[in-house]
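The material for today's practical consists of a large collection of protein records. There is nothing in a record beyond a sequence line and a structure line. As an example, a complete record with its sequence and its structure tokens follows:
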Amino acid sequence: MNTDRIAIIGAGLSGLYAAYLLEQKGIRDYVLIEARDAPGGRIASFPAPGFTGDDPETKPEPVNGFDLGPTWFWPDLQPQLGRLIECLGLERFQQHETGDMMVERPAAGSAMRVPGHVNFPTSMRLVGGMGALIELLRQRLDAPRMLTGEVVRRMRCDGQQVELDTEDAGGRVTRWRVEHALVALPPRLAEATIEFSPALPQDLARQWRATATWMAAHAKYIAIYDSPFWRQQGLSGEARSALGPLVEIHDASMPGGGAALFGFFGLPAQLRQCVPEALLRQHCRSQLVRLFGAQASACKADFIKDWSREPFTATSADLVSDPGHARAPASMVEEAPWSGRMTGIASEWSPQFPGYVAGAIEAASLGVQALPRFLRRRG
């Protein structure tokens, strides 16, 4: 039996930030448990072509990370996230929006070029992608405190402690005993994949089950080029399409790094899963040629990230549910024996920004602040 004061379940942004906050408070007897082989959760960056990342001498520079998960943040609206990015020394830049945009409409013939627009407040991005934020937080943690490739299968509570059973890829089960669990999994995923004993109160379980996981129904396509040729044509790289398969396209280039376009699929998750990925990529490349011309066919690499296929992100309910930002459910169990022993801290539990990157920071902060008094006294 392994013992710690706190278990953090999930090493996405909220889990990593919760661990970061605990260490700042001098609390280091925690364990951070991640089912995937690497931290990051729904934040994923695609490295520049030609780099595997395995050899330190050929590791890609941060400027060459392209986001397959969340991309933007808005520091004017999300000051807590903005302060963290500044504190960590991460470089940010404005989303490129200069130039005209392309539009595809049914029965309109060829794509139309229309005046572009600049969003307000300004959409910001990180040099190196959101993965740079994950990497810097990971570097600031006590490495042995984080376990990867361990899936939490069961949680039991007797009112005084919580026991967790984790399982690795080989089926080996490890048991942990802690005073408090911070659940950094999306509510729906936690309710569907963890066996709670005693069971969660029915009303709370319904809330968690009804909370759509942000990005779980989404898929993104990215194409990487030698240069942002569309800018030379006076185009912003932005497009809207009613024909698809991509319905919304943006410039994903990095300043001083690689050039790229990315788009969101309009096809429902259930339909996407019936189409081979190679065929989807072919249709995406054809669409970029329709919108931006023959040069769009010369991509160096392209990639699809379908979050609905991620077992540690999506459940079957996410394939058919509303993919929008859900209202935050209750993050704590009021009834014994779970009362005071478990707190939800994933982005969906954020009161202000559920589902957003800023929501992960807010929910983790609130969860750490709400830890029982005896943890604060001993810390």
